[in-house]
Design a protein that fits this description.
five-stranded mixed β-sheet; 42 strands; mainly beta; globular
Amino acid sequence: MRRNITGTVTSALALSASMLAVPMALAADPAPLQLEEIIVTANRRAENLQSVPVSIAALSADALETKGVSSAAALSGMMPNVRVNSPFSETQPNFTIRGVGVANEFNPNAQSPIGVYFDEAYQGFRASHGAALYDLERIEVLKGPQGTLYGRNTTGGAINLITRRPELGEDKGYLTAGIGNYGRFTLTGAAEATLVEDELGARIAFTRLYRDGYIKNVTERYGATNRLVGTKDFDSDDSMAGRLSIRAKPNDTIDLTLRGYLSHNEPVGSTGVIKQLNPTGADITGRVLTGIGKREAAATNQGRFVSNARGLNLKADVNVGDVAISSVTGYDTGDLHQPFDFDGSPSAIGEWRPNAANFWSVGQDLHATYDADGFSLIGGAYVGSQKVKVSNNYQYVGFLSALAGPGQFNPGGNFFPPTQVPPTAIDAHQELSQAQETYAVYAEAVIDLTDTTRLTLGGRLTHEQVRLTDYSSFLRDSTGRPFLYTYASAGARILSGLPVLSPAPAEIKESVTKPTGRIVLSQDVGDQGMVYGSYSRGYRSGSFNGQSIVPVPNFVKPEEVDAFEAGYKGRFLDNALQVNAALFYNDYKGQQVQEIQNGVAFLRSLDGRMYGFELEATAFLSDDVRVQAALGYLNTRYKNGQFLAPGDAAATDPRGIALGGNAFPFAPEWTASLSPEMVLAQIGDGNLILNADIQYASRQYFDPFNDRQAMGPIRDGQKGYTLVDARLRYDADNFTIALWGKNLFNKYYYSYGLNIESFAFDFFTPGAPRTYGVEATIRF
């Protein structure tokens, strides 16, 4: 049956593609496509996208629907120099913009250098970034440091997700349902009611998504059993979310919107695929998984990656004469539960059993905007507090405990000579609490130097305090009983009677005060053009190592980026052509990266630089044919004189492996996309429309070592690849029916990789295979 469906869908899409060559005279008076006027709030005020002198990309609600965007992972490749990757399926997406991202670091207590905002409220917990995207008005992606108006954790940029709110007009809504291969089922809808016309309304929205896994679970083929998910396939999708928005506008000067949301994800996690270093294919226990496929795994401890997020958001806008006052209040809480078997086999080599985290945060931003003839000023303050509690359980080389026998203790053979005490598993339990308090004031002025020249000056001063408390880590013996603490803070909840190797203070506190800001000079060119030049600085909060099981967690200081940019935005040919371009150079200090030695994770920091350009164009070849194209170039390099992994077998220097000249992780040199869209015909009161998305990314590496450390295939990273998506839809006034396909040529590629060669293998997360389906939307 699957083969028949595949053939039908492929044939339909191929037929649709061939119709692009049909002369438009065959279409009966089709409605023309239009160049959108997108209003964004990148500068904390509503502005036309083309008039904002920063590099920003925006996807409207129509564009999100057309491209089938339902999760953050779908944003990867849609814009030049923007990537999304993760070893944890879509539960915890990692964003990278112009080479700035979380690199290969995966601490749940660390915050992304790409700030993520829901309706202008900051979301600090990375697991909440994987919530489903539904019922959105638009997505804004700001590139480069946003240290003035958005503040900390925006060294690479910011992503602002704007949800739809009640319009206080007519009652309306929609319902979208879809099915696809891999058992995919989607149901999304929204409805709004106006309780008092122009004054009070409510909108409710929801989404439900289910999909079977992309990696086949073949555990039973090799005589083993997965005790957590049985025979369910890995790397699935299983999520639901809902949102209630209430808007009150009692008069022309007051506008209040209260939003409450919740989301729940419980997909079977991605155990990845494994490449053994042994030429025979045997792992370090001698096991060989004969005949294992490139989308198959036999993991016995891979379970569901469960994440929950809940929150409230209050946006209040009050106009007092020439001054507009805005308040954004956000409260969020969430949790994460990740049983992760990253050896992909029945052998007990590498497992999280599980790792878990709980999170809460509250933030308040208050700012006022004054607009006068030739001058505008925005000034405000922000205060925020958040806390993450981490509880991790690791078991590395677990098979050693079975060989050692009961009651033995010599984790990894590191405590005693193996001739005296047999090596046992590195079996650890770690806990910590990290609290963060942030205070900031900011101001930005836009001054008209002439009728066509504007100067923007902005600055922000942030004071931040990060505290580590209740932190401890103990190791178990070969029977699984707690044996000793490697470290424990005073006052931490610990098991009585166990020795502590490294007693630690009750609290480790780090404070920092950081100035950030920007200066922008822009010049109008003609009626619809603008050139600009800018300097900006941003920073990412420092963090403690959230995965340290032996030494006391180390602290890495904040990242800093100094960015220089020149750009152009313009429209030509009576709005038939839009061209945006940007050149940039960034100096990057203190990038936080993960270093893994003998299965133990350390948090380090590195310096580097990056430069490149981006070119985006939208052109109408006729009233019914639109083509969007983008090209990005990115050159990233670590600075000389930096080393990691001292004592590594690949190191030729006692300081470790030299990183100077290496590229940043997840930073392909070239990215490109092409998105044609065509009205094929008018049928009844609707249009038959075909659009395609072609995306290319050149070679990228998965860690800062590039090809200088690994012996296995991870040293080559992921070579360049191209993905092709297509969508054929019929749009009428009250309904839409669409046939879609993604990765139509079923390209096999890796979206994430991890060097675990201390255990003699490399770990990879494959990208999604070919998927396809149909969906229908009813509007009422």
